[in-house]
Description:
Layout: E1 4-11, E2 22-23, E3 28-29, E4 41-48, E5 66-72, E6 79-85, E7 91-92, E8 110-117, E9 125-126, E10 142-146, E11 161-166, E12 178-183
Antiparallel strand pairs: 1-8, 1-9, 2-4, 2-8, 3-7, 4-5, 5-6, 9-10, 10-11, 11-12
Amino acid sequence: MSGSIGIRLTRAKKSYDLGASKFFGAPTVPRAWDGEFFEDEIFLCQIRLSDIAELDRENRLPHTGYLSVFLSTGTDELVPIVRYFDGEPELALSDFNKQVEGYESFNDAYLAEFFSAEEDYDGTRLFGIPSGWCYDEEPPSLLLQYDPLDNETGFLDYMDGYLYLFFGEDTNDLSKISLMEDFS
């Protein structure tokens, strides 16, 4: 079994590198993406993949560019929209989440610090085995586990459990990422 990459979040100061790995705040994107977002879409996080290159020894993600996770909020369930860009983004979208009712308060950036973690680490992380997995079937391959009680963002803080993002059968196809909310 492989390890995981733990994520520690700290609220960003007023001035920070907009291209940093972070949750919430202003997503930085390539100009080509401008205008491609849905009205009900919120920004969850961006990972500058060079930040995790040394920790991703199994090369589960590219080690250049950015992985950006957005969530569609237009139905009763959150739907993940994961985008990859192999380059440096040129455009910061300020107040991105203010446009979506119920998510207006998630505009402060929380910078991500990455560290090597056990595959079943209970906090927010990339990869490994989903914490608390108590289902009969084998879990899908985990991309991201978000623990709302592991940080001070306030996002999903009513949930005592985890938000999981799972790879599809083809881990290189980011359009097949699925989401599951798991309450303890």
